[in-house]
């Protein structure tokens, strides 16, 4: 059966990367400056930051509508027997819910998987799904393998500023002001699909040291692992993490640039990584 993987733009896979993997990407939307922009297609994060700093209102992000999703599935199923959809955590967005509703129009032909991830963690799961389906693994077994993998994956992200959390209403102005005065760099992670605070570091140097130590911890606890990196305007920090990953002998899968949806929530200067098992064992078989 000919299958294809569909993921969303918070995987931050560029078109060339998606084509190389052999999957398709449906974009989320950023409502900003009087119009809707398609993530990764119509507005870059640098331009978004420039407009916000110039006084534009904070952007609002939105998932693909059910109808948009239904139209995308209809198009893909003209050329494929089955669509395996891997999406941003359902605890962070309605993308998974909209995909599930749209799939009802195509009974038995669409599998929808909640990754519990975003950015690089989502991209890694989508890539694994595409590879397994290409190798002839049935969609039910692919879904089981990804579900087994979810609690074993680790994502860490360092914010450079608290201003975007404050402007988006996620923290108070006093907390953002204090964070700026103290030069705090929060370290965030994902746990069962929800964002959680992992640490607060002071200064860029200590933040990079903490992230490097987190990578070492992942490599020690999961020697047969693989890692993907992401950032929006922090290439030197990612290069430092990539150097450490090579030193540790960790398999590097990809490096991604954050699109406008995730950047709208996190602000500029973000960097991070997602770490997961290179192989997942299910019923005595490696996936």
From TrEMBL:
DNA damage is among the record's keywords: no
Highest taxon of source: Bacteria
Keywords carried by this UniProt record: Lipid-binding
InterPro entries to which the protein is assigned, alphabetical: DegV (IPR003797), DegV_C (IPR043168), DegV_domain_contain (IPR050270)
Keyword Metal-binding among record annotations: no
Gene Ontology molecular function: lipid binding
SUPFAM superfamilies, A to Z: DAK1/DegV-like
Any Pfam family: DegV
Name of this chain's protein: Fatty acid-binding protein DegV
Lineage: Bacteria, Thermotogati, Deinococcota, Deinococci, Deinococcales
